[in-house]
TrEMBL record:
Gene Ontology CC: cell outer membrane
Topological type in the membrane: Multi-pass membrane protein
Molecular function terms from GO: siderophore uptake transmembrane transporter activity
Cell compartments where the protein resides: Cell outer membrane
Magnesium as UniProt keyword: no
Main location group: membrane
Protein name from the UniProt record: TonB-dependent receptor
Extent of the signal sequence: 1-21
Domain TonB-dependent receptor-like beta-barrel: from-to ranges: 370-895
GO biological process terms held by the UniProt record: siderophore transmembrane transport
Amino acid sequence: MKHFSYYIILLLILFSGFTYAQSTISGKITDGSSSQGLVGANVWVKGSIIGTTTDNKGEFSLSTNLSFPLTLTVSAVGYERQEVDLSAASTSIAISLSPQTTLMQEVVISASRVEENIMRSPVSIEKMDIRSIQQTPSANFYDGLQHMKSLDMVTSGLTYKAINTRGFAGTGNSRFLQLVDGVDNQTPGLNFAVGNLFGLSDLDAESVELIPGAASALYGPVAFNGVLMMRSKDPFQFQGLSAMTKVGINHVSDPSTDASPVYDVALRYAKAINNRFAFKINASYLTGLDWNATNYTDVDSRTPIEQRGESNPAKNAMNIYGDEVARALPGIGRVSRTGYEEKYLADYRVKSLKLNGALHYRINSNLEAIYQYNFGQGTANYTGSSRFSINNFTLQQHRVELRGSQFFVRAYTTIENSHDSYNVRTLGQHINKTWVRDLDGNVVSSDKADDTWFGRYTAAYTGNISNVPAQNHSTARGFADEGRFQPGTAEFEREKDRLTGIYGGQIGAGIFSNSKLYHAEGQYDFSKQVKVLNVLVGGNYRLYDMFTDGTLLDDKNERITINEYGAFVQASKELLDNKLKLTASGRYDKNENFKGRFTPRASAVFSPTENHNFRASFQSGFRNPTPVDQYIKLFAGPITILGGVPNNSKGMNVYENTFTASSVGAFGGAFGADVGAGTPPPQAIEKNKGLLQKSNVAYIKPERIESYEIGYKGLLGRKLIVDLNYYYSSYTDFILNQVVIQPQSQILNADGSINSQAASELLNGKSQAYQLYTNAKDKVSVQGSTLGLTYYLPSNFVISGNATWTEFNLRDANPNNIPAFNTPAYKTNLSISNPSVLGNVGFNVAWHWQDAFNWVGSFNELQPGRIQAYHMLDAQVSYKVPAIKSIFKLGASNLTNQYIVQAYGSPAVGGLYYVSITFDELFR
């Protein structure tokens, strides 16, 4: 914070002395059909950063030191953009805007990092503008993104939803870049954005742009599978006091809990002073009862499917934790411990607090300095390799920026604190170690708890306990569970609080991370200087500063830092009387742990007429392994999880001196069979050691993608917008895990043969298993197509629909080497809306459907779980009260209240019904 304050002060000192002769431009903006003044219309000088908005009478005034002639650009939500040429200063400009009937003039920035018409974008792009944000039928604008084509949304809980495009979806997506005002919204420790838990409030959201597919050529390694760019409202353009109160209810007809209220409130205030200095403050708070994860299906991988279920003594229920601990008991069979349901372990009372403030200072007509501070604190439930309670997690961001009409320079830092977060599954396992009694009735220490419990079970089942029927799994379990802490009791809650406060999975369930991310970047548009080409250059530097205090990474005594940088250049040229636009770009990125990567992109847009645009593009991309992929060093009992960069395993001899896990399994099986047949162990070792194979695991490196795309976007009959595309992508070097076994001795003799001593150590427990991060050599491909239609009917009715088809081709790849695709083959969206169907009454109804598919994730040990096909209906009715600048809204997400699972093991999501009132830009 202190360093960023210094930067702002320095900028003001350097530029505050510059003064210029000022000219005043003022006038009035009106609605072309009603001649009424337009409130909140944007007016700015083209080619500069100077602009303002109209007041409650539609009037505006701005000062500039730019020389005449110049051009004013005027825009308002729902109206056609207009440009007005001025030869001299004027105080009586009258401009009339015509209502917008199509999206032909919509402008996007993310596709090429410069402003361009959405119809001529070189790649597929989706946009939610301020009007769509205000009219979304979903509970908030972020939930409303699910109605965009190409986008997949996965719900882990009420306050956390993950998005993805074009396959390989997950509950946490490190292949997708999410930006808020140009700032990466990922948490440095998790390495992915936690939905909108720490993002924008609805009141401050100005627009959202989505690029599906590889975007590394312009945005670097995180944008492997796409970019979501969210922009907040500029305090110069959106001024006044805005407030929103929303009250909802969820868990209606939920068999697992009673209906519960959801509260969502937000406040925004922005003010510009003399068109020179502006500030804004934002505050929002949401709280409610999270969706319950209640899938108790037996998923025990070592029990045949037909034998699983309630009668299975080794039952491992999906959302019950502690029952993963199981053993094969002699003469009895496989038995699991009794677990605890998730609802007793997780924190289901979730919340999201977002605070934001920004200062904007216009140093001159073409230079603006910005300082912004974001604070977020939230509680959410997240499905990863386990279920995690992200509890009171905080994320702070400081941003400073200097920008003009042709450039920007930006620096920001992100600071996280995991606070009370914990692993829900680990918590259940540890509580199970706090109450177990020996046969004399004494509570044993945690390190003896599992052995003692299984001993009690064995004694009861085999008839060695009086008054307990033998050969009965139910009574044996009851005897072993004597003294078990029951959920809700003081003893249970005491142990829950104690264990969540202890960091490190071997002794507690708490999660610790106080990691940071530092980022600086800039870009400059040389188009005015080069003339013959539009040339854009940019670059960035990033530093990860990881600190988990030894609980996840080996950083107890020394911080782990990772440096990376990148630079790009983009050139474009319009030919054939501006009907053909060619663009080429290239980017070079270097991470200190990997070789530099060059990622090119090329595109062509052909527009034979204004209303018809054909595009084709080639894109390439890559993804650096996350800091956790590189540096995790987690000692988890019989296995150690080890990140894949060389210096993370320095001196451990793991990559050089280990056997493959599969060969160790084959050797152990053959040895056991021979010993059982009477062969002495030494001879059995010598006979079978040839089955052992030295591992050949490579150090980790980035993933890669190449993608080709063609598309069309056009306007037919002045009423129908068509957006069609097809893409083909090829992926390689997917990051995966491989298990190896390391004995204490050297595995090979001098002549290359297997060392008998090393083979013996595999059998007597003198070995260690390692799970290594590496890459698969396999190549796979994905192809798909989307179609979007928007039809403008008379009287402000709009019907829109889209369909997405995606196909995954494994080719000759080993399925075990490829991340789960986790994407339905087909999904569709359909909506109908009218912002003023009856005067001030408007509505929006949106329907979503997607096909069934198999979900594979680490939460279920990579076993497939079926996600059933489902449809969801969102709807809202609104009523505007212009006199008090307010909108009343009655709506519902998932109106029909179907309980839908979007990721196997995550909760079923039902309807959320709400009523809200929003006051917008009062006291301008």
